[in-house]
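pasting NAD(P)-dependent oxidoreductase for the record, 257 residues
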Amino acid sequence: MSRGKGQVAVITGASNGIGAASALALASEGFQVALGARSVDKLDEVAQAIAKETGVQPFVMTLDVRNEADVKHFVAAVVEKYGRIDVLVNNAGLAKGVSNVIDEADTTNWDQMIDTNVKGLLLMTRESVPHMIKGGNGHVINLGSIAGHQAYAGGAVYCATKFAVRAITDSLRQELLGLPIRVTTVDPGMVNTGFSLVRLGDQEQADQVYAGMTPLTAEDIADCVAFAATRPKHVNIDTIIVKPTDQAGAGKVARRL
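structre below
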């Protein structure tokens, strides 16, 4: 069933991990997908995989969500191509480093997390939602985290950005009340993508994060995104909190070592 037929979905951070998996899941549901990320080479690989699977070539364009001019140019190009935006998946995000607030932390990591996870999400939302209002149909799906529900030592700034995502999502839902636009947040626990490698900068350390347990996959989260996006128009999935069976909360993990 092509439940997304005739609709256009924009996915940020679509070059790998959850973004790439969500793009494929939505394309498989019949959505026309527009992919944005900083690495256009990786985007092309994702687009080729989607075209092979669905027979439809996605829209691909380089995008740095931290840059306002970049965001404006990207959204304008999508609208010029398709004439509309129906779904925005704000997936672009990252964690950089693990350090206590009082440590001599690299503040460039703070800037990167705040600018990408919060400012980037806000910019993409601001530019995309007016097109949803004009088209009479829309859905903003924000990728949050259980770190937006539970803070933990060493993750203050990352957790703060995900708490912000939750607050923005809740506020946006109230601001758009009465309009045919849905607002959802998908908040995963431990997902084995490139997340930990980006955060820690070392493959061995990243592998240890998931040692002795079975984490979620990018495809698991993409299933949640596609589920929310394909509900009947009168149904809004507010929040999906999804964790591995081996995880009960931040830092609460069953390991078989």
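The chain has one domain: 8-246.
The chain has a mean pLDDT of 94.
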